[in-house]
Amino acid sequence: MTNVLVIRSAATGDASVSNTLINAYLAALPEGASIVERDLDTNPVPHVTQASLAGIGRQAAEGEGFAAARALQDELIAEVFAADTIVIGLPLYNFGMPSTLKAWFDYIARAGTTFQYTAEGPEGLVKGKKAIIAHARAGKYDDASGFPFAVPHLKSLLGFVGVTDVTVTTAEGLAFGPEAAAEAIKTGTAAMAELA
Ligand SMILES: Cc1cc2nc3c(=O)[nH]c(=O)nc-3n(C[C@H](O)[C@H](O)[C@H](O)COP(=O)(O)O)c2cc1C
After folding, report:
1. Least packed by Cβ within 10 Å: which of 24, 63, 192, 196?
2. Number of structural domains in the chain
């Protein structure tokens, strides 16, 4: 049985293109797949604050919020380790990822658990998994140029924790009129269904 973890980060709910791409993937999955969903819009991970710093392992364990932050971090990390495939919705917000998605990464990156430092440098400990990025953006860009930086940033973070098998499906040019948007969504949903 395939275990799929879905991370949604769009603030647009049912109108979301990244969510539409994810839905196309989920609808095409073989029967029996186990799906765990985490919607960072309706159920956001808190930003890292002074109170939660210790809980997520970035400071000595003291202060309020330690236990709550650690419990949430444990839960999020367990979801990652339980998955064979991680599907991430990535709307482009001001050339980067939504801050809700960055906050999720700030919680799942824990030294000694999802990555570690070795004599040779950092080593990701989340091994043997695939990630699929469902990317949506109003404009049209050349990702090879490094700008915008949402996709390279997300791929780098995934790689840092050990997830290097990453496939990106992009629906772009969504602001270029209804026809262009419909075509981008059609191509993107077909690509996502194919991946499933
Ligand atoms: C706060 C915000 C910032 C955005 N910044 C960009 C941007 O820098 N470049 C771009 O092409 N589109 C930008 N957009 C448009 C979104 O990427 C586009 O609407 C996309 O469809 C959002 O994904 P969703 O449909 O899953 O919500 C932005 C939208 C919002 C709400």
Report:
1. 63
2. 1
